[in-house]
């Protein structure tokens, strides 16, 4: 991820994160993908009415799809409102999709959505990562490191 991409994410009015992903997986490689949405879906996402809990990505017929993403119905939508948990297509280059497909054939690797944001042109984008699952002792180590960081921050505030 370069500095321009980080700046876009920070400036975005919407940042919908998958908080559980960092605890459950090691991130090997990250990608930024576009999302194919309908009219009321993008309106709901701009209002922050989406969730990445229990979402995952899969490759079907050479196309990348996100499954389980919850986008709440748009309040002002009429009979044209969208389905909440439909599968949504992600836009990546063919080369990147082939690379992900070959990597996920190995055991223990998966593709996980990390963040949904709006870019400077108003389009919805999703950060996805090629991940390897953590074992139980890795999760305990992550919790220990998090607790140590908290203790250090508390000590630094105390001495200021």
Number of helices: 5
Arithmetic mean pLDDT: 87
Count of beta strands: 9
**What class would the helix/strand composition place it in?**
alpha+beta
Low-confidence stretches: none
First-last Cα distance: 34 Å
Describe the global form.
globular
Query: What fraction strand?
Result: 25-35%
Cα-atom radius of gyration: 18 Å
Largest sheet: 7 strands, antiparallel
Along the chain, the helix and strand elements come as HEHEHEEEEEHEEH
Helix content: 25-40%
Instruction: Write out the strand line-up for the largest beta sheet, numbering strands in chain order.
Output: 1-8-9-2-7-5-4
Write up what this structure looks like.
This protein is of the alpha+beta class and 160 residues long. It contains 5 helices and 9 strands, in the order H-E-H-E-H-E-E-E-E-E-H-E-E-H. The chain has helices at residues 3-11, 21-24, 39-46, 94-104, 136-159; strands spanning 15-17, 25-35, 50-51, 56-60, 63-67, 70-71, 88-91, 109-118, 124-133. The strands form 2 sheets. Strands 1-8-9-2-7-5-4 form a 7-stranded antiparallel sheet, sandwiched between helices. The longest helix is centred in the last third of the chain and has 24 residues, at 136-159. The two termini are 34 Å apart. The model has no long low-confidence stretch (mean pLDDT 87).
